[in-house]
Description:
Layout: E1 15-24, E2 27-28, H1 30-39, E3 45-46, E4 59-60, H2 73-92, E5 103-107, H3 115-126, H4 133-140, H5 146-151, H6 156-165, E6 172-174, H7 180-193, E7 199-206, H8 211-219, E8 249-257, H9 258-263, E9 270-279, H10 292-305, E10 314-316, H11 323-337, E11 345-347, H12 350-353, H13 360-374, E12 376-377, E13 393-394, E14 399-400, E15 405-412, E16 416-423
Parallel strand pairs: 5-6, 5-7, 10-11, 10-15, 11-13
Antiparallel strand pairs: 1-2, 1-8, 1-9, 3-4, 7-8, 9-16, 12-14, 15-16
Helix pairs in contact: 2-6, 3-4, 7-13, 10-11
Amino acid sequence: MTPRAHRDPRGRPLIAVTGLGIVSSLGRGQAETWAALVEGRSGIRAITRFPTDGLRTRIAGTVDDLDTEPLVAPLLSERFAAAAAEEAVEQSGIGRPGDFPGALFIAVPPVEMEWPQRRALAEAAGGTGPVDYAGLIRAAGSRRFDDWHDLFIFGTVADRIADRFGTRGSPISLSTACSSGATAIQLGVEAIRRGETAAALCIGTDGSVNPESLIRFSLLSALSTRNDPPEQASRPFSKDRDGFVMGEGAAALVLEDAGAAAARGAAILGYVLGCGEKGDGFHRTRSSPDGAPIIAAIRASLDDAGLAPEQIDTVNAHGTSTPENDRMEALGLAAVFGERAAHLPVTSNKSMIGHTLTAAGAIEAAASLLTLRHGRIPPTINHRVPDPALGLDVVAQARDLPVRTVLSNSFGFGGQNTCLVFGIEPA
């Protein structure tokens, strides 16, 4: 490939993916996760890490072989991110261990002190009497709570991952709801295109399966209450869908300027051809009823990639299994792809791993790249009662196709929409 071929149609550096890493409820590593995805196995199970008595939803796609002490979202998110990044960096063969020659962009969940820590702090502050602000300040300043101060600060996970892998510059932490993982990849792409770095480690991670999160999402009527059997609860694009199932895990991508990757003889797993985003200020949780921001994000990603809609081979959908989100995504696809939307293969990994929230866009990006490599589209399980109002070709069983391009959608609460286009070769 000539140096000119390492540029995209707009003359920008072409973005190559040279490493992938995944941690999910289906297993550790891309091999385990991919095998389960194409077999249609579910990682959704009854929650065992804490009591679920009295909860409307008692299931999740948990990662139960990587725990922490204390068992809190920041530490779980860090463990998942480190495991995924180790796999990705090792596969890429870039740099030396602990000396990554590029920037870190990491999507992490919003951080706040969790219930067990709040209770301990309140007990330390008030003893047997009422808790006041002065008491909380005194308790928080005691040696017992020193570690918690760092633990529950947004950015701590990024700092620790940066130290571990030796990334360059200040690590970038971000949280854009359920599009966060895709946004981390977009930031890495843009930094390489601007010439600020030749490589980027992009991660989406989330370990937020805890009682407080389940209660909050239940109060929004967002979660499925189909607890038995757990593996049948997540039903994206099905007529009988009743909400999403929480999941957790992480994915990491090593992105490089394709010219630099070729110069060092790296194996290229695929390319990030385009990124598109569009904000939607309509509502804190709902999508704009006309679908305009979703449509704009999809179109922006295709335009950025220099591709026409007919050049997309399959869609890795956001597909949460909530009544409204699936309907809005279908509306967006119909607007962009027209009559072809009824024949364009669409799949949702969330049917098997649940909705991994902050990590979702990164995990689904990794799944999209594996689809390109293997020429196989994973199924959307539990799709037994299609919703005729959606008009989509939902892949209910793994489908072998010569896939060369994938559109991966990520739509978050607050109208944060990010779409990525991946290809097996330059556009």
